[in-house]
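Exam revision sheet. Question 4 asks you to relate a sequence to its structure. Input first:
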Amino acid sequence: MKKSALSKRCESKGFTLVELLVVITVIAILSAIGLAVFNGVQPRARNDARKADLDSISKALEVNKTNSSYVALADSQFATGKIPLKDPQGLVYCGNVTVNSTPSDITAAPTASVCTSSADYSPISTTVPVLAAGATSWKICTWLEAEGGNPAGAYCIKSAQ
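Answer key, structure tokens:
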């Protein structure tokens, strides 16, 4: 039995409109999930880098402490060959020193080059937070981004004394 030209056209190989719509919908859903996961990872990674930098600064200060005084930070004390001065977004790390009292908490996020706070914080350098004569403690801080359900806020490390 011979097939008509009309039936041959109907048997053409290809995808139906419904099949294409299902595939496009699945791809769109997977893309939306992937984008949501990826966006949440970036702030967490930057916050982890900030915490690691402050940890390395605090360890360098404590390891090189002689008697009751701290030695100035040097680039050679860090694995990267440089003191971490700024976070992944270019904001400065802040520190302060105090005499016979505990350093207060940082109260405002730093700008690109200035630590704004009511507690006299200064950008981390070779001389901050090295203790001056009579100073008994130091504190270094960074500002964390909001991530997941956690709000933005200061993250600080205090001297071991």
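Marking note for examiners. The helical segments are 5-10, 17-63.
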